[in-house]
Amino acid sequence: VTRATALALLLLLAGCGSETALWLRVEAPLVVPTACDSIDVDVARADGTAAFGQSYDLTQGPQFPLTLSLVAQTNADVSVPLTVTVAALKAGALVKPWATKSAQVTLSGGQLTPLTIQLCECP
Amino acid sequence: VTAGSLLVLALLRGAADPDLAAAEAAYDEAHYEEVLPAVRRALQHLLTGADKKRAFELEAFTQAAFDERNASVEAFRQVLGLDPAYEPDASAGPKVRAYWEHARRLGPLGRPPPPPPPPPPARAVQDVPRQTPVMTGIRDTRATLGLSQTPGERAHDEPLYQRWYFWAGAGAAAVAAAVVVGVAVMNKPQAPAGNLGTGALK
Prior knowledge:
The complex is a heterodimer. Chain A is mainly β. Chain A is 11% helix and 46% strand. Chain A contains one helix and eight strands. Helices cover 60% and strands 2% of the residues of chain B. Classes of the chains: A mainly beta, B mainly alpha. At the A-B interface, helix 1, strand 1, strand 2, strand 3 and strand 4 of A face helix 9 and strand 1 of B.
């Protein structure tokens, strides 16, 4: 009885594990909304399929750095490389040539994986 | 047949009881339907052993005359109880002799029962489990309460699922599991919302 109870508790705890998510932070030397009024965020899998795509209106803020958490709903996006692309826009166009960047990240199960993308004219 | 003649007949035959004399007379005259009532009356008197034997003998003969086999055999067994060496007269018919033979095989009636067999020898002292006065008192109390076992003995015989502490433990485990699950769900690490909010990979 004790062993069975312990096993049941372990299974329950395993099923109730923490979320798998990406913690995205976007840094840019841009003032919202005069220099940038929106930002696009896209996440693509290795096979090219889109895992996420969203445009955020920044006319009401917030200012950089922008942060966003993306939660993995299935295990399909866990432990596989994902490509994250962000683009800072003004009136629907890139504010600067360097205002877009991609980075790869691999999510770990049950963990919050941070990813910081810097949009700048830096090398 | 008058009472006086019966008494004379009884005296002549050596029978002291008038009812037995009447039974003899009725039998001799083949008035068999009168024999048995007279025999039964005579048997209610205090008869000598010989008269009693004769009364049962007359009953046996008369029952045989009526083809009452079982009753005749029982009467013969009474006779054999009084005289184990009894044997019907040679003039008795084959039916009577057959009933007598059967009665002899069954054995006599009316004999005192054999003495009871002696009790088995007492067990050796070392074989008798020792009982302290306390144990005897406990057993007496249990008998008064209608208990055949002590609570400890009953608990030992009951299966696990019928013991109170099994269900108490199961209930406690269920409550603990519910608490752990509840706490785990409530404390489930949630991804923090950024200033752009939270999205979902699909």
